[in-house]
Amino acid sequence: MHIKDFMDLSKLQEIQDKFSTCTGLAAIAMDTNGEYLTKGSNFTDFCMKYTRGSSEGNKRCVKCDKEGTGTYYCHAGLMDFSVDIKVNGEKVGVIIGGQTLPNPPDEEKFRGIAQELGIDPEQYIRALRKVPVSSEEKIRSAADLLGIVVNQLVNLEYFKHNNADRLDLLQEEVKNSTTLIQAINDNTSHLKTIANKQKILSLNASIEAARSGEAGLGFNVVAKSMQDLSSQSAIIYNEIEKSVAEITRTISALSSLFE
């Protein structure tokens, strides 16, 4: 499973950029093959250019997970984080970042580190002063929040991608149902008209049977039966109309979801 196969990565980039702007933390997303999904946000020269940029600094840059929390410290004292991106329990990527100091730096200590790494101390300190400082608790909370937001976004995009065909089919069936209901309404209206005509005809037949006296008694019974059937049919058609009206409201509500 690859994130880029089912979602627009610009959405992930936007969230990451805004996260970095709000928190000052650096961040970048990668897939399970180590390929970058986004461009880095808010990374500083202190780490990328100087600390890890030198051959000696890169050798020393071993990170240790603190108590299995997903937060790490490099030899220069920077705090980083790692958050897994999962879909249905399967890891599909990771967001790494941080590049933040959990405490105000001791500049003299870093001058010594610069000398050990063979870096100009003044350049190193200028870069150090641009590194954001935040408490360990805030860094962890920010990383957790980013993980929640990104995982919700990625899972939503996965759901939309996998169910796009089903939603299109549902939309088409709703349209078909709307057409069928209209046809039922039209037919029911025609049947009501026929029932009314039958009622009038049976009434006229009853009048003519009465005029015929005893000779029209049998015909009068038939006319009365026709009248009763017409009345019963009208009641049934009214019930059908009510049911169709309820279905119509339901289908209309479903249709509005696709507008």
Outline of the structure:
By secondary structure, the chain is an alpha+beta fold. Helices cover 63% and strands 12% of the residues.
Number of helical regions:
7
Mean pLDDT: 76
Amount of helix? 55-70%
Succession of helices and strands: HEHHEEEEHHHH
Q: What fraction strand? A: 5-15%
Strand order of the largest sheet: 1-5-4-3-2
Tell me, what's the shape? rod-shaped
- The termini sit apart by 31 Å
Major sheet characteristics: 5 strands, antiparallel
Number of beta-strand segments: 5
* Uncertain residue segments: 60-69
Structural class: alpha+beta
Return Rg in Å.
Answer: 38 Å
Structure notes:
By secondary structure, the protein is α+β, with helices and mostly antiparallel strands. Helices cover 63% and strands 12% of the residues. It contains seven helices and five strands, in the order αβααββββαααα. The protein has helices at 9-23, 45-51, 55-60, 107-117, 121-128, 136-211, 217-256; strands at 26-31, 64-65, 71-73, 79-87, 90-100. A five-stranded antiparallel β-sheet has the order 1-5-4-3-2, with helices on one face. Helix 1 packs across helix 6 (136-211), helix 4 crosses helix 5 (121-128) and helix 6 (136-211) packs antiparallel against helix 7. The longest helix is centred in the C-terminal third of the chain and has 76 residues, at 136-211. The protein is rod-shaped.
